[in-house]
């Protein structure tokens, strides 16, 4: 039987919306391209900090805040250095942070386990969405199947835009690796971030005690295709990164780049322009999370904004009921646009500061409210 609402994508925003509709007794189906929950768990890594006024507010409404608190880490420290490894800022932790960290995988599991298994349809990669003559919506999948009769389709499937400027490489260092102590010396129980010379080197502790390494460089998107052979060869890629981008880095950074375990995953970063946040409401369809307002991750709020979208959309759906979904979408989008513009703008500014030649000082001055002009 067709449910009134289809949610496309089982990331944080799609799953949070599913859970919020679940607790409000509104029927929905989530369609996800990943083949299974197991495969989904392996996708992407690192940790996310979940904020009180947004991500945690959504979890509270979803009845998941206590469970979240039991697995979140409240003792993560943040260390910011320049490209030589000189410490520029340390934010210690008193154990009472309002931005606790959780592994990306654990957040997805928390949300996924909170909705009935039958509500998530795996291996359903969406190709397009169509409006039918009777006003209902149908979803077409790449496997050739079509699901029809929805009153509202919510895109929660991430997004791509034309603004492309940066490539990140990510790798994982195993806790049993000989490098574990080096990673621990840098990041301790939290995050170590080194910026400068238009590069980023970051180490994060994950919930299981292992460390996750992120390297960021400001490159044109064409860099990947221009180096197509090298990027497929982990050893050659590490050599290239060390030679061309991290040659002047502290030895401990270079050791971690050279000897970290696991493949380097390429993760090009994209962002929508803030001006895109003003579309006319289209009856029967709306967007949440990155699909609505993809931004670079330099203010660490993407997942919080995404789950807050889910909260505001679910509240409007409950308020207007299934008979008033058009009004619900209109009201939700009015609330979402200014938050999205703020997120995209602040993250773009942050990226400029963090990838400036003198980074991270411009960012620190801005963070401290000091005018650097
Ligand atoms: C390197 C990096 C670091 C980040 N760090 C932080 C951080 O510290 N803090 C923070 O708040 N945010 C961070 N973010 C941003 C955060 O990850 C995103 O904002 C968040 O994941 C958005 O959730 P979402 O559910 O909207 O989209 P996604 O997490 O992208 O989920 C989309 C889902 O849709 C599925 N999907 C995609 N296409 C289709 C299709 N065609 N059909 C069906 N399903 C589909 C995907 O498989 C996925 O499950 C970071 C992002 C990056 C890239």
Automatic annotation (TrEMBL):
Keyword Cell membrane attached: no
Span of the signal peptide: none
Pfam families, sorted: FAD_binding_3
Source lineage: Eukaryota, Viridiplantae, Streptophyta, Embryophyta, Tracheophyta
Gene3D superfamilies: FAD/NAD(P)-binding domain
Residue ranges of domain FAD-binding in the record: 3-169, 284-319
Record-given protein name: FAD-binding domain-containing protein
Keywords in alphabetical order: FAD, Flavoprotein, Monooxygenase, Oxidoreductase
InterPro entries assigned to the protein according to its UniProt record, in alphabetical order: FAD-bd, FAD/NAD-bd_sf
Source organism: Carpinus fangiana
């Amino acid at each position: 039987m067709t449910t009134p609402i289809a949610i496309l994508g089982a990331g944080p925003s799609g799953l949070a919306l599913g859970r919020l509709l679940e607790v409000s007794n509104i029927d929905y189906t989530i369609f996800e391209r990943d083949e299974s929950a197991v495969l989904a768990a392996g996708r992407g890594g690192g940790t996310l900090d979940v904020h009180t006024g947004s991500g945690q507010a959504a979890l509270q409404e979803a009845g998941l805040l206590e469970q979240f608190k039991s697995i979140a880490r409240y003792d993560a420290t943040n260390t910011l250095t320049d490209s030589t490894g000189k410490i520029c800022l340390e934010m210690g932790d008193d154990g009472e942070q309002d931005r606790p960290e959780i592994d990306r995988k654990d957040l997805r599991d928390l949300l996924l386990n909170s909705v009935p298994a039958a509500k998530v349809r795996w291996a359903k990669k969406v190709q397009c969405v169509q409006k039918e003559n009777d006003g209902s919506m149908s979803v077409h999948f790449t496997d050739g199947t079509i699901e029809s009769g929805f009153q509202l389709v919510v895109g929660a499937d991430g997004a791509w835009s034309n603004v492309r400027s940066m490539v990140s490489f990510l790798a994982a260092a195993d806790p049993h690796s000989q490098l574990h102590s080096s990673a621990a010396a840098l990041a301790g129980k939290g995050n170590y971030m080194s910026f400068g010379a238009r590069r980023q080197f970051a180490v994060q502790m994950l919930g299981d005690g292992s460390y996750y390494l992120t390297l960021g460089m400001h490159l044109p998107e064409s860099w990947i295709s221009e180096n197509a052979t090298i990027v497929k060869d982990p050893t050659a890629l590490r050599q290239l990164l060390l030679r061309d981008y991290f040659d002047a880095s502290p030895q401990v950074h270079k050791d971690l780049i050279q000897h970290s375990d696991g493949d380097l995953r390429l993760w090009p970063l994209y962002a929508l322009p803030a001006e895109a946040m003003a579309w006319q409401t289209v009856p029967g369809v709306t967007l949440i999370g990155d699909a609505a307002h993809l931004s670079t991750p330099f203010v660490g709020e993407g997942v919080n904004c995404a789950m807050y979208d889910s909260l505001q959309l679910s509240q409007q759906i409950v308020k207007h009921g299934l008979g008033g979904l058009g009004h619900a979408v209109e009201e939700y989008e009015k609330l979402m646009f200014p938050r999205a513009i703020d997120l995209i703008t602040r993250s773009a500014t942050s990226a400029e500061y963090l990838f400036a030649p003198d980074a991270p000082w411009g960012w620190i001055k801005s963070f401290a409210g000091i005018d650097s002009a």
